[in-house]
């Protein structure tokens, strides 16, 4: 009996991270409110192991990593135009996401994995003005909603 309980506890501890991983849905839209070419929501904070599902609600969009805007050692992702893509974020840090055809129009979002703050150089690369403006607003939103640390 002890062996069965011990084995059950071991199995539960090994698979507990998988059981609690979440999937967050993000819509790719032509318009939301007064804003055009947007991800909705445009900023999310997830736990390591969570998945973000980018849904092509409106045609003509994709989701992909912005070059240079992901933690070191992570692989970039690139969805196809008008196709859904699911991305599991395992490494803590901040990820910039763009819609390639509408990057210059500011169609970007931020995925924060874990509770840390954005790195100082997150917006250091070449970013179109409208995209940079939206990234700055997203970083502010994420900073305001970050859990308190001791």
Under CATH, the homologous superfamily reads: Cupredoxins -  blue copper proteins
CATH architecture: Sandwich
Question: Which residue ranges are poorly predicted, with pLDDT under 50 across at least 5 consecutive positions?
Answer: 4-17
Q: Structural class of the helices, strands and pairings? A: alpha/beta
- Overall body shape: globular
Key structural traits:
alpha/beta, Immunoglobulin-like
Would you mind describing this structure in some detail?
The protein is α/β, with parallel strands linked by helices and 150 residues long. It has a single domain, classed as Immunoglobulin-like (Sandwich). It contains two helices and eight strands, in the order H-E-E-E-E-E-E-E-E-H. It has helices spanning 2-20, 129-144; strands at residues 23-32, 35-40, 43-46, 50-55, 64-65, 85-89, 93-98, 108-113. The strands form two sheets. It has a four-stranded mixed beta sheet, with no helix packed on it. A four-stranded mixed beta sheet has the order 3-8-7-5, with helices on one face. A hairpin with a 2-residue loop joins strand 1 and strand 2 (35-40). The protein is globular.
């Amino acid at each position: 009996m002890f062996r069965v309980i011990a084995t059950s506890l071991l199995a539960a501890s090994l698979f507990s991270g998988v059981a609690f991983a979440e999937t967050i849905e993000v819509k790719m839209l032509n318009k939301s409110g007064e804003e055009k070419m947007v991800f909705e929501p445009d900023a999310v904070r997830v736990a390591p192991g969570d998945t973000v599902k980018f849904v092509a609600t409106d045609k003509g969009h994709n989701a992909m990593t912005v070059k240079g805007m992901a933690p070191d050692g992570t692989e970039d992702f690139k969805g196809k135009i008008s196709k859904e893509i699911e991305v599991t974020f395992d490494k803590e840090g901040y990820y910039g996401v763009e819609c390639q055809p509408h990057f210059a129009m500011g169609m970007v979002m931020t995925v924060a994995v874990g509770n840390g703050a954005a790195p100082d150089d997150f917006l250091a690369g070449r970013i179109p003005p409208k995209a940079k403006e939206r990234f700055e607003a997203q970083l502010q939103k994420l900073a305001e909603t970050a859990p308190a640390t001791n």
